[in-house]
Amino acid sequence: MPKRYRYHDYDPALDTTTQADEILDALADSLTYHGNVSEALRELLAQGFGATPGLAELLERLRRRRDELLAHYDPNGLVAQLNTELDAIISQEHTTRSQAYAASGDEQHLLAGLELDALPAGLGDRIRELTNYEFLDERAKERFGDLVESLRSSMLREQVQQLRDALTTADPELTAQMMNELAELIERFRNGEDVEADFASFKQQYPGIAGDDEEFEDFLARMVESARLTQSLLGSMDAATRAELMDLMSVLSESPELGQAMSRLGSALGPWTNTDAAGYGFHGDVPLGLGELEEVMSTLGQLDELEGALKQASSPERLSELDSAQLEELLGSDAGDAVSRLKQLADQLSDAGLIDRDGGKLELTGNAINKLGDIVLHRLFPAGQARLLGNHESRRIGHQGTDLSGETKPYEFGDPFRLALRETMTNALARQGGGTPLQLAPEDFAIELTEERTRAATMLALDLSLSMPLNDTFLPAKQVALALSSLIHSRYPRDYLGYVVFSEVAREVDLAHLPSAQWDYVYGTNIEHALLLCRTRLRNQPGYRQILLVTDGEPTAHIDPDNHEVFFAYPPSPETIQRTLAEVLRCTREGITINLFILNPDTGLRSFVNNVLAINHGQAFYSSGTTLGSTLVQEYVDDRVQRASRRPTS
């Protein structure tokens, strides 16, 4: 059965290669600077890219959301609000008692009114007294009952969030029993015992307290977080309000046994909770009432938990632990999509063949390094300036070169017979007018023309001494290496390009290891050794040969010929200068041009540069870090154009 194909409009969202290229573009500076893929991804996670907000922005949104809550509410108004409601209940009951006494003259109503007048001032004490009071007004009685139930479910549930079902549906004795058993499990866990089997039995006895598949350690972590929230709430209140609420919790425990059980549970949780926890810092003026208490504290707790998770997200994989629905609820509708895209960063790069996973380590592929060079080159020369890097070489088209030019000509006697088959067949068809067999005649033959292009061999010597990062020139130096590689591979594929990096000594590096090359934490700028390695590598290269030397300092080190150890001196010793200039002379005698790109034009360096130019007759370019790339790359192109134009024509 023949294969069928379906076509549809181009959708950028489905183009994984384009998405991976966008990610690589966003990583370019970090990868060029240190070459560490994992570290670059961490930085990208923090800053985001394009329209995708990063973790830093999400954390800022989180802090703003928290600040909005703290600036709106005042937890100290809770007791005042409760007292106001209780005053209204007492007033309603007092009015009913007064009306009943006036109607019946029964002194029982008078004594009840006096009892209400004699209630203590404290909120907890008043509730304790009214719990044993016999209400006459049914509505007041109902309101008081609702208030107590609301307080019990809110205050006690807030203290131990995970026990809310038991605290609202079980009797005090059963609740006390449950808390004691839970406290015992925690105490045994603290002593190093395995309590999973007993915890499973506990969950069966008290269903709904914990998840069916939840392990004890995870359950304990939730309880600790709940206790921490309670401590933070209490810490946000002034001393008087805090004392009132602590007394109120004691009243609401309903029985001494429940109070003791809660105390034991609190002690068991003690090692994991900070009893001196700082408050949240509420500074609003809206009283935090019972209706908002649980929701506000729950939101603050979720924000704290999310903040910790975002701060610990050191890799895209760690983001998988985050709840997208919670992110959208707390931080906005785009937060979930942002995290979803961020956690796919490594996978998209891997699928596009830009990184390899070697165990737990991420490495750039050769394709990624080539693309990095393209990215840097295009940044140095945007679309509007791309024409500056056009193929400006003068070409000699004919029969002497080795590269096909793409042009053809009729065959003449004596021409190399590089048959242009398509043109030859076209000529025969035009002459014969179709039909088979096709008869070829001598005048039908066409041949391919070739061209001879200039060839250059270049060694790029990069200074990686400690002064480069200190002067903010380290990144531009590595960028220019990648950009030059991209230029040569794409436009001058016959050219040779090698790399030498140097500080107190020099060493060759290949393109694959260039992004990860770092500055050396040593003193010394050994230009002599760098030139020696470059000269050795260029010795057997045909064509024009040059060294592009990028440095921000004069030579301060050389290798002692007697003991082969590095000699360092600053200011530079005369011997170091002499040995470096001697190597410049050797390069000159072997026909190697030295072009210098200077990032720190101080007086001493200028003197050295002038001596190099006097010997080698190359060029010197004084550049800042921001212009180094465009200066060096453009000079490379211009130099090739000038050399091509100077070549004799045949």
Characterization of the model:
The protein is α/β, with parallel strands linked by helices and 650 residues long. It is built from 25 helices and 17 strands. The longest helix is centred in the N-terminal third of the chain and has 28 residues, at 77-104. Mean pLDDT is 79; it is low at 158-162 and 383-401.
> What is the SS-derived class?
alpha/beta
Mean pLDDT: 79
> Describe the biggest sheet?
6 strands, mixed
Please give the radius of gyration in angstroms. Answer: 41 Å
How many beta-strand segments?
17
**Lateral strand order in the biggest sheet:** 12-11-10-13-16-17
Query: What general outline do the C-alpha atoms trace?
Result: elongated
State the helical fraction: 55-70%
The end-to-end span amounts to 60 Å
Relative strand content: 5-15%
List the helices and strands and how they pair.
Layout lengths: L15 H19 L2 H11 E2 L2 E2 L1 H18 E2 L2 H28 L2 H11 L5 H9 L6 H22 L4 H6 L2 H19 L5 H10 L10 H20 L3 H14 L3 H14 L16 E2 L2 H22 L12 H8 L1 H10 L2 H7 L3 E4 L2 E4 L1 H15 L15 E3 L4 E8 L10 H12 L13 E7 L3 E8 L3 H4 L3 H18 L4 E7 L3 E4 L17 H12 L5 E8 L5 E3 L6 E3 L5 H16 L2 E7 L4 H14 L3 E3 L5 H19 L4
Parallel strand pairs: 3-4, 10-11, 10-13, 13-16, 16-17
Antiparallel strand pairs: 1-2, 5-6, 7-9, 8-9, 11-12, 14-15
